[in-house]
Amino acid sequence: MYAFEDGDGLVVRSVAGAFRIDPRHDATMRRVLPRLDGAHDLSALLGGEPAAAAFYVLRMLGWFAQSGLLVARPRIPAARIAPEPVARDVPLLWLPGRGALADALAGALARTGLAVAGRGGLDEAPPAGAVRVTCLDGPDLDHLDAAARAARAEGAAWFPVFPFGDAVMVGPLAVPESGPCPRCVLLRWLGISPTIALERAYHDHLRQGGWRLHPPVPRPEAADLADDLARAVCAGLGGPRSGGWATLLHRGGGDCEAGPVERHPLCPDCRAATASPPDDRRDAWFDAPLPLASLGARLRDLAAGPGALTRLVPPPRGRASARDPALPAVAVGRFAVPDPAIVTGRQTTWCHGSGACLDEARTVALIEGLERYAGLHPGEHGLVAPYEAVADRALRPTDLPLFSPAQYAEPDFPFRPFDPAEPLGWVPGYDLSRDRPVLVPRTAARYGVDDRLLGETSSGVAAHSARGAALLNGALELVERDAFMIHWLHRLSPPRIDRETIASAASRAMLDAVAAGGYAVHLRDLTTDLRIPVCLAVGTRTDRAAPALIVGAGAALDAATALARAARELYAATLHVTGAWRLGDPLEPGAVLEIDDHAKAYEHPDWLPQAAFLWASLAPAAAEGWRAPARTPVPTPVPTSLAPADDLTALMARLAERGHSLVGVDITPPELARRSLRVVRAIVPGLQPLGFGRRIRLGGRRLYEAPPRMGAGTFAQSEDALNPVPHCFP
Length: 730
Fold this sequence. Notes:
This protein is an alpha+beta fold. Helix content is about 30%, strand content about 15%.
């Protein structure tokens, strides 16, 4: 661990994460931290400290241990993983410098059979063709940037090795014209950090000269690390991974993280093209996808190493048991944020997956994480032009829809009305219903884009190995959210689905597990005039032992699969509740501004009456399909069908009955396209979008046209009659 000051106080940092210290206990932690060396017991650590301070220290030590900042075992001797001789042609390594780490590494590399030169001093000039190795004794990030640029300017390959707090970063190999560089790997590392804002503060601290405060690696430790480092250097120089492989070697435990590193879209030196080229062929949207296992095998290395784009983590201990073989396996991960600067405080970067087995669940979690990463990816800026200049080939923003005149008139409303003469960013999409390319507002395609036009969410973004399969999932998600928002805004009570008549054993098992965990389970038919089945699954409780309300929803072309998807989401919601959960004070409606606020509000039973109309109806659902077996026994976000083209065609036909088209935008970053993953934003102009806080868009016609077509007897006929209460959709 390493402690440093930033503008807001003391931060304790490790490669496992970082914590900000409560200013009230700053002095106590400064006394305790130097004693965390394995030689002091609790009495020595806390002797003489006031009770409140000692309790705080114990709590922080618990968090440190849970997060991996404390290691209660000696370092595994490096000799057990000594590098094997290199059986391939590797060019000369030029390794100048006389620091402890450089000396130890040079000796270990020589023992592998590699030719190492440059030990005479920094004044010697490296010979042509040599790989320049910069091995530092401290994390001088600016020095690394300068060395990388100098090597690039001279057309030389370059390889970094440097201490990075309680670890050593090895690689990646920077090859002229191909990257990546140290800044790429540090941006990747920052994006996958569990504490991005504090990790960014650490990087800033180093660049402001704080690296000088890091004690250099002692020579005995350097000697102990040398063989591990040499092995990592050989891996970074080798074979097909050349130019994109890095290892983070933990100094305290003998463990390492190794994996590929892609060029980062925000790196000023290695910035790569960040969007797939548009494909104007209709057939490109109807390709057959890969089987899930094959896709997972191609993506798995993206979850490894310091440059990971997503990372699987042990799932929290939930209140529902996952040991019943009828229940799906569940996996949990975190996804990387492509632009770490957007994270300024608490981050929500979790991704989840479920499947028939743990491998399938992990693959689904990995795909969901990469989908979120792609949605936040900055992409190419593309064309910038006013709508009036591209109207003949562009999607009109007001058709999405946008906000209402009354919303724009609200004081301090954060969005502005659409002006057809104002320049907008556009990205290429494809209108499958009209069979033609179409320009789409960039802010409608990427939900990480800062905009004042519509404030898009992740709804409609999906990933698969084929565009059509991803588009199908994304479009069904839009149908699901449209159905929920129409029911919520009009306070419509949907008909009841009888749990006892469900044919699917998997769906029954998941719902039974939710009920066994203390929830009353409510199933409702949210299907609208689109005639695409939508199911809402709700769990409620008032005992304050867990969140008062949890929600799952699903849409599909058959009712039983929609129900199965809703049941899976509801079951997964119970697994996310850990023993550390505590009920907070009820939120005021005006405090519900962001996506997390909506779920947090309905954790409190005081909010249940606001949503009770959703499960109040006793009228039975009419469709017999709710009782049929689901086509997909264990539903996942990734269709298991290898022929989704028929489903996509059927979906477009049902949308067309109500005058809606289907537009797809491929937002796949190049690092995912190379591994056969496609990430697509589905857009169905006119559907009612999901929104949070003040970002609920009320400017569309469908909001008022759908309820009478659905046969609703009572519904809001004007905006001021709509439900003003924040919704419960998570």
